[in-house]
């Protein structure tokens, strides 16, 4: 099989094989399977009708007002119900409560996929739009999914789940499990860079995946000609070096056959397959768009009505596809084959409608959900809670015969690999022969060759894959080569990793390593501190160690954490010989909360990262030159912040100077300053002061970077001013 579908196979041979397999597959479908497909398609339309009814009727109420809810329709695309027919899904693939079958990531037109793989859970499908208590999201989102049945939930940023599937498929391949991950997207979604990153990643790593493109003829109001100049979306597969088919997306047996064929190929680890389904949405983008698309609100029905001239849909195109109604076509075929009668067909429709009516009553009777508990409990599997303790100056000394910050991070990874057989590193240039851009992992390359996974350049794919790996019981450590590039992965970090626990109550144990910082004359794209971008994103934890032992031990803590952790490593500290520390001191090195690195009673200086060392130098200078004792507090954790230690120091000194390498405006320390002002006003003897670098991009030239960065002299002058206040 592997040889048969190698890269050298001709297009003619590929199509010939598909046609032969298609004939065999269609002949193999049993009467029970054919009947299930018909009932499922009818149920899909009945649910679609029910969702439309709920939107129009306003019978769901919150307080004294109706709640229409958000909803998307799948009218005319019910043949997608056939896609999972021969996939490995259902209760037969649940072992001791763990799902072991194939995974799918349906989108908003794929109600049929959800129904098939959830054993036709009508109530959950209706409740998604209603937002009541219970599955699928307990009112926290209006999309459908059920991870326990192999269904990733959809999201408004369309390619989120596609990128997540990369990690699932990578885990399947690494564990040699005969499982497939299936991505669904519409014609509009193929324009997303995120989708391109995902399919390229899957192709490069020969992942067991199917990429389904449903060519709906238009994305909201944008026709396919504006999405792509290619003759067909399947033609794009050539650019990724994978195989593709274009099929009739309104023929349910064609759909079932194509997915079975593609799944068998992907399962044999020949790499992903792209399936283009030619179809058309026969409704608006969402409920509210029906009137604009069709020219009038449609009446919910098992038949597809005509569009009015006032609608924005292409009338001729609409009529062409209306004649290809997948339910009507399949019903006619089954009647011709003697497997269905008009009366039985009507009975099936009546039962489907009744089932939906019963489901609506159940949904209406459900209570509205409430946000119960602390915020951290809603967004984290296990919030970090720092131990209550009296602050003592860190006893861990620097030593010339110690290890560097870079070496300590490498050792932290090594220890994590030794402890967890399911831990791996994924990123650009992390694998042999390079060992990352700083050659950090060279010393452990030979010991753990198979734990380092190189990726194409594509930060969204890296982070999405980490989420999928985490959901697959792996412990991924993702690397963004320079933290500045995380801007390219903002969607995956903020909308996927950070929100998954809140939306689905699923733990996402991943670490994203982010080398950051200036002091190196590296210019505006290799020197930023991006941690403030994520400081207000609920669902993320942020660590920023400033010493080798902090880095080594906190990295291991991050790997063991059940929630997503952004791990910021200051590049200027990587090989700084002045802060070397000994491994043998690690056993007594405390990494719980903030660290007091210098003690005094006249002023509190609070910082993190490389500027902790600048602050300590200032404190030592004030002590030696002026006899002024200063507390220097290294936050170490940015989410959550150890406010107990902050308060203890500020209450003692009555004066506080917050020092950040980042620009002051919008910085994390501005937020800390605000908190201190609110909570400790009565303890303060001087204004809370924040110092930061200038509010411009980090410049490149040594002279310009010097002018940009906050200076040691500036910190010292501000400290003396506050003490004298």
Detailed description of the structure:
Residues 1-6 have low confidence and may be disordered. The chain contains 25 helices and 23 strands. The protein has 3 domains: 30-365, Thiamin diphosphate (ThDP)-binding fold, Pyr/PP domains (Rossmann fold), CATH 3.40.50; 405-588, Thiamin diphosphate (ThDP)-binding fold, Pyr/PP domains (Rossmann fold, 3-Layer(aba) Sandwich), CATH 3.40.50; 595-724, Rossmann fold, CATH 3.40.50. α1 packs across α9 and α15 packs parallel to α20. It has 725 residues and is an alpha/beta fold. The strands form 6 sheets. Strands 13-12-14-15-17-16-21 form a 7-stranded mixed β-sheet, sandwiched between helices. The protein has a 5-stranded parallel β-sheet with strand order 5-6-7-11-10, with helices on both faces. A 5-stranded mixed β-sheet has the order 18-20-19-22-23, with helices on both faces. The termini are far apart. The longest helix has 27 residues, at 31-57. The chain is elongated and about 100 Å long.
């Amino acid at each position: 099989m592997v040889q048969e579908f190698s890269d050298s196979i001709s297009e003619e041979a590929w199509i010939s094989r598909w046609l032969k397999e298609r004939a065999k597959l269609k002949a193999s479908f049993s009467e029970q399977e054919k009947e299930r497909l018909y009932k499922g398609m009818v149920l899909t339309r009945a649910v679609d009708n029910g969702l439309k009814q709920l939107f129009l009727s306003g019978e769901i109420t919150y307080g004294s007002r109706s709640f229409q809810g958000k909803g998307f329709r799948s009218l005319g695309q019910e043949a997608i119900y056939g896609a999972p027919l021969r996939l490995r899904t259902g209760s037969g693939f649940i072992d001791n409560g763990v799902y072991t079958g194939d995974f799918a990531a349906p989108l908003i037109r794929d109600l049929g996929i959800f129904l098939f793989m959830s054993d036709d859970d009508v109530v959950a499908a209706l409740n998604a739009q209603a937002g009541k208590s219970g599955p699928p999201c307990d009112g926290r989102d209006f999309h459908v999914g059920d991870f326990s049945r192999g269904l990733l939930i959809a999201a408004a940023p369309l390619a989120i789940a596609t990128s997540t599937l990369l990690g699932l498929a990578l885990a399947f391949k690494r564990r040699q499990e005969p499982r497939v991950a299936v991505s669904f997207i519409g014609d509009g979604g193929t324009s997303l860079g995120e989708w391109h990153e995902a399919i390229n990643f899957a192709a490069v790593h020969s992942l067991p995946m199917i990429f389904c493109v449903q060519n709906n003829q238009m994305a909201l109001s944008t026709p396919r000609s504006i999405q792509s100049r290619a003759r067909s979306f399947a033609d794009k597969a050539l650019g990724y070096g994978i195989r593709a088919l274009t099929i009739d997306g309104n023929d349910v047996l064609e759909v079932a056959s194509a997915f079975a064929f593609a799944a068998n190929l992907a399962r044999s680890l020949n790499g992903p397959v792209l399936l283009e389904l030619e179809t058309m949405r026969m409704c608006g983008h969402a409920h509210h768009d029906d009137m604009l698309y069709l020219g009038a609100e449609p009446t919910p029905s098992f038949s597809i009505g005509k569009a009015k001239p006032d609608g924005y849909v292409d009338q001729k195109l609409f009529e062409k596809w209306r004649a290809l109604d997948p339910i009507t076509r399949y019903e006619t075929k089954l009647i011709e084959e003697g497997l269905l009668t008009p009366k039985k067909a009507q009975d099936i429709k009546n039962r489907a409608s009744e089932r939906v009516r019963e489901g609506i009553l159940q949904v209406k009777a459900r209570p509205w959900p409430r946000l119960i508990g602390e915020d951290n409990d809603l967004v984290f599997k296990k919030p970090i809670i720092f131990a209550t303790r009296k602050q003592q100056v860190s006893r861990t000394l620097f030593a010339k015969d110690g290890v560097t910050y870079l070496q300590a991070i490498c050792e932290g990874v090594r220890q994590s690999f030794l402890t967890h057989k399911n831990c791996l590193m994924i990123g650009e240039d992390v694998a042999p022969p390079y060992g990352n851009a700083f050659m950090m992992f060279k010393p452990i390359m030979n010991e753990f060759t198979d734990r380092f996974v190189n990726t194409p350049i594509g930060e969204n794919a890296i982070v999405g894959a980490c989420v999928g790996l985490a959901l697959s019981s792996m412990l991924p450590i993702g690397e963004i080569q320079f933290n500045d590039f995380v801007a390219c992965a903002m969607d995956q970090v903020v909308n996927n990793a950070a929100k998954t626990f809140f939306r689905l109550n699923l733990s996402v144990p991943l670490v994203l390593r982010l080398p950051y910082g200036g002091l190196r004359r590296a210019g505006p794209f290799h020197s930023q501190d991006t941690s403030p971008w994520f400081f207000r994103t609920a669902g993320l934890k942020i660590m920023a160690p400033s010493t080798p032992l902090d880095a080594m031990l906190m990295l291991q803590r991050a790997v063991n954490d059940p929630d997503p952790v952004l791990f910021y490593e200051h590049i200027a500290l990587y090989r700084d010989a002045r802060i070397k520390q000994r491994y043998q001191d690690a056993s007594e090195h405390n990494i719980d909360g903030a660290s007091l690195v210098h003690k005094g009673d006249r002023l509190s200086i609070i910082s993190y990262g490389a500027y902790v060392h600048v602050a300590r130098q200032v404190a030592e200078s004030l002590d030696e030159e002026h006899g002024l004792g200063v507390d220097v507090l290294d936050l170490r954790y940015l989410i959550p912040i150890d406010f107990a230690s902050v308060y203890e120091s500020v209450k003692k000194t009555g004066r506080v100077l917050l020092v950040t390498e980042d620009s002051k405006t919008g910085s994390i320390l501005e937020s800390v300053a605000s908190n201190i002002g609110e909570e400790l006003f009565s303890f303060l003897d001087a204004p809370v002061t924040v110092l930061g670098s200038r509010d411009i991009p980090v410049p490149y030239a040594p002279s310009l970077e010097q002018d940009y960065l906050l200076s040691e002299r500036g910190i010292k002058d501000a400290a003396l001013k506050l003490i004298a206040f």
